[in-house]
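Work Package 3 (structural annotation) set out to generate three-dimensional models for the target panel prioritized at the project kickoff. During this period the team completed the workflow that converts sequence records into discrete structure tokens, so that structures can be stored uniformly alongside our sequence database. As a representative example, we reproduce one entry of 190 residues exactly as it appears in the project archive.
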Amino acid sequence: MIIGILAIQGDYEAHARMLDRIGVAHRYVRTAAGLKGLDGIILPGGESTTHLKVMTEEGLFEPLKKFGAEGGAVYGTCAGAILLAREVHGPPQASLGLLDASVLRNGYGRQLASDVRIVQTKLREQPIETAFIRAPIFESVGAEVEILAQDSGHPVLVREANILASTFHPELTDDPTIHEYFVKMAGKTV
């Protein structure tokens, strides 16, 4: 199994460290050719408009969209969740549209509103630590989207078929639960 990590911007190296920790092979993806042979790909946090600009310039936008549309496992964290959403607000922007959700950029506020929270998920009995950094808010999700975790009345971890998205950064914690879950998704065992 090989998991790709979009390595345009954001803390993609933290995702690599988490995958190393759980013993999963990975490679950085910066071009469309990098998608070949992947079982899944992680879209990290950062600045979604910067991701979009570089993805478009490098000819990666449409191949990424096709990868997810054809059943490739895709996990987006924070800005990655924004890139996956069908609809983006605050302000509106283009997206891959692979997840039936509407998202509000910086929904929790600016950098000063960033914090770490303990959240209960459907993935295990014990709660997990979550790092919210200029996090978006899922305003709504479609009927086929499973809410795996909520915080303050908002979904914060969701799944629709082969697409997983979180508004927080699990790669900035010591807990591999969500990465392990995504790897199982990519292996089609969840």
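The radius of gyration is 15 Å.
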